[in-house]
Protein 1
Amino acid sequence: MSEWWTYRAEDFLLFSPRVYWRMFELHNAALWPLHLLMLGAGVIIILLIARRPGTGARWVAFILAICWIFVGWSFLWNRYATINWAAAYVAPAFAVEGALLILASLRDGLAFGRRGLTAWTGYLILGFALAGQPLLAPLQGRGWTSSEVFGIAPDPTAMATLGVLLLARGRLLPLLLPIPVLWCLLSGLTLQTMGEPQAWAPYGVLALAAAAWIWTMIRRRGSPDMRTADVLKESRT
Amino acid sequence: MGTTRRTFVRASLATAASALLPISLHAQQAPPARRPIPSTREEIPIVGLGTWITFNVGDDPLLRDECAAVMAAFFEAGGRMIDCSPMYGSSQPVIGYGLQKLGRPSALFSAEKVWISSGAAGPPQIEQSRRFWGVSKFDLVQVHNLLAWKTHLPLLFQMKAAGAVRYVGITTSEGRRHDLVEQIMRSEPIDFVQFSYNVVDREAEARLLPLASERGIAVIVNRPFRQGALTDRLKREPLPGWAREFGISSWAQLMLKFILAHPAVTVAIPATTRVDHVRENLSAAAGTMPDAAMRERISAHVKAL
């Protein structure tokens, strides 16, 4: 692209806010009542992490994998790509995240057991993705019909995954993190460019997650005991 | 196109449009002025219809019908040129939907673009665009944002020679690459050039507009309201009293008249999602146009606000 420095984010926005939010309305109407099943799956993820952090890990990864693949296909590929050709290039990334999560499920690539501030931040983000994000549409006067629901829409799915990954340990974490992080950035940028105040949601989740990870790393460096404990835990996963 | 046939087409469109929305009462407004395309002297109305963002509504049936209503009002008010691009998401199939719903108005002047970096992929892309519109051929195909222009332009000239397209052009927007645009205008036998020009972005006056006159190239003006930013900024400001002498009622009309009054401009292509706005835009193409002194006054006034 020539003279790339003269382009602004607005130059890449192909649709209006009205069309964007109508897209969620139509998507929700087409998939209802699948939302209830997806929210139930989200609650199961929280229960598995809290109650069965060892044996439930592979199921958590599996549920998230299904959600990523489904959202990538049903929302990005079949719906969002009709108004934003770039979404057709992002949809395969959702399939890749799904495949990585399936791998994590089959190879026991994730284990839960974090405690303290990082864990609570993970639960907070997970809770917001499941219960907070769907409220943003009615709170901003768009009504429930355009709510973004976990497992149906990409933002709450990516946010919930970030929350889960904050609660997890394992060798696959570095591979599982980039796609949800990049999606939250992309979504925040899109909403910001549209002038939508809701942009704070993906940005806020990213900031919280980054703060929690930085906190964890600082604590690791400062505590040899913690490093040893992490090594022992990861050797069991 | 003869007067009798045009009258018949307009009457048919008005009937079709009135079936969509109760808009037939508005058919009385004065027809838009026309200007000749220099390379053929064919005359076209000086206000067209852009589709950037506004027609990218995907599969949404409600919004598709709204776009069809905008098209109906556009044709009913005497408009002809609709401009689109493969870059504009679903805008091409949405135009096709509207044209089909309106009974494929013969007044249509179809302006498309080729927008792909591979020269070999140009013809398949143009063919895909043609299928989306549902037209037998495009009136005008432009190289979008000069992308791969060295490979696309020879192909477009071949298509023109073979009768597969009537006119060939190039586009840019927001003041980018004016040096290259100027170079192509000097060296290539293009019929149309498209760039941004409005009451505050006047760089084109220095070289491109005079060169278009000199070389006999038709000018399409995009982003006449800076993609809505100008109309948004001015909507709370009162129209100056002296603007009333042009019989206008809105800032959009005043800003359009500023553009259309430039003698080198052939057609401006404002985009809108609203039927009342498309009528308002077309009505700016009729009646008195500001002279050079008044154009300066309009520009100075808007810049000062």
Protein 2
Amino acid sequence: MAIDADTARKVARLARIRVEEERLPALAKEFDAILGFIAQLEEVDVEGVEPMTSVTPMRLRRRADVVTEGNRQAEVLLNAPDARAGFFAVPKVVE
Amino acid sequence: MTALADLALADLTLAEARDGLRAGDFTALELTDACIARVEGGRALNAFVHETFEVARERARFADNRLALGMSPDLCGIPIGIKDLFCTEGVPSQAASRILEGFRPPYESTVTRKLREGGAVMLGKLNMDEFAMGSSNETSVYGPVVSPWRAEGSEEALTPGGSSGGSAAAVAAGLCPAALGTDTGGSIRQPAAFTGIVGLKPTYGRVSRWGIVAFASSLDQAGPMTRTVRDAAILLRAIAGGDPLDSTSADIPVPDYEKGLSGDVRGKVIGIPREYRMEGMPEEIERLWERGREWLREAGATIRDISLPHTRYALPAYYVIAPAEASSNLARYDGVRYGRRAALAPGDGVAEMMERTRAEGFGPEVQRRVMVGTYVLSAGFYDAYYNRARRVRALIKRDFEEAFAQGVDAILTPATPSAAFPLGSASDDPVQMYLNDVFTVTVNLAGLPGVSVPAGLDRRGLPLGLQVIGRPWEEGALLDVAASLERAAGPLPGPARWW
């Protein structure tokens, strides 16, 4: 399957990565090479095979529904590029 | 100031250093200073990217106090290098990515916490491929690690392999006795093979992933990189075990791997998978593999030809599953909560902020994998790519299960399809680079333990490694096979110092 620049643009958008328009054809070509490599999987008969979930069958551990950590606002915000008044700050999202 | 003779302390194995510390032959501070001097003298390798010498000296003094009281754990006072992928409290933890520039976690990963509590001395953070995506350490924002090894008569800079290239170079060059790596498709074993050291990827779930920057959560596993098999056994015990903070870690008892280490392979059945004999494989790799078979046979093991029929589909399955998981894991880097945010243009909204941040913050290979992952998970392709890859993964695991059910105890393969290659020689073609992991990636997909053991030098004097693959949770038996190979290979020279 050939990936065109439109598909590359769409994927970049979904991945939230800005790609300049002139880079799209080259990117599409890279995707094409990788997807061509992946296409070998079509040869495998997977009829009736369940997708693998874990190495050793084990039930996902559950813990009691209680607060284990809390009151760490300062630490949570410590590495934020922009934090104000105890919140993460981002560009305006509502008009 | 450390006396010149004391620098040789940095050449001790982890076991020797531990025994020497306990016997009072030298102090943890002396050992740490010897390693620090080596790190300072080894900056040309670009292995350590965040040096934490003050932290190291403080922990060494503390370790000396514990050692004076007796009853110190194995790692007490041992200097260790930590891959940049591990979150370490108050110390930059960047996964070699621009997007995590300035990030200082207020917490400690479970593995590094265990080491810290056991008295280990963190020397600093080690270089790697960005987000552990790469096989040559060339995708790092810090620039590539240069291997301490050079081909005979050549000054060409070689890759130490990747993604744990800094860890491999640091241990091979004698900057520290041991380092932590992580392995998603071969990222411990391939660089270990390229630099002539031991690299162990434990069974998936053996070691907690909590606090390790996630790449592909169903494949990632941390493990030891050391100069000897015994050292790998010691370090594995120190980091292994179930963890309430990682629901995929297993509550399976952790044995004393060092105590159990006999190197005895008598009566063991070693499988030789015919599918690992690749077309175009260099003759030297084939000969190395043959020698490994001979060594194990001479040590009393039974060598048996086996088939793992889905081997050739492992890399394509991996390059669906790993990018899919990466695209999901890396969605968190949005410029909001931590890490770097791009400068915005007037009128930019949240979407533009994220798109600019991720375009500036991620390097080309990470962008490529995130987008491939996004594509294979997108509506209409999810079944054709992602679900199909997960089914193929089940078949790859079944191949191993059948071999083990037929009495095979361990599987012997080459670790890599070649010796280390020159920096810059393989970076333009992503698919070509992916082939580096052809022998290692199956092990991650099946969740098995695997170890790379130095087995000799090629004719240009570069290290080559053999890989042993074990049954799930049986790292002890795996290490016995590794120790048998190590003994048969005999002492191998280290890299000649040029840096």
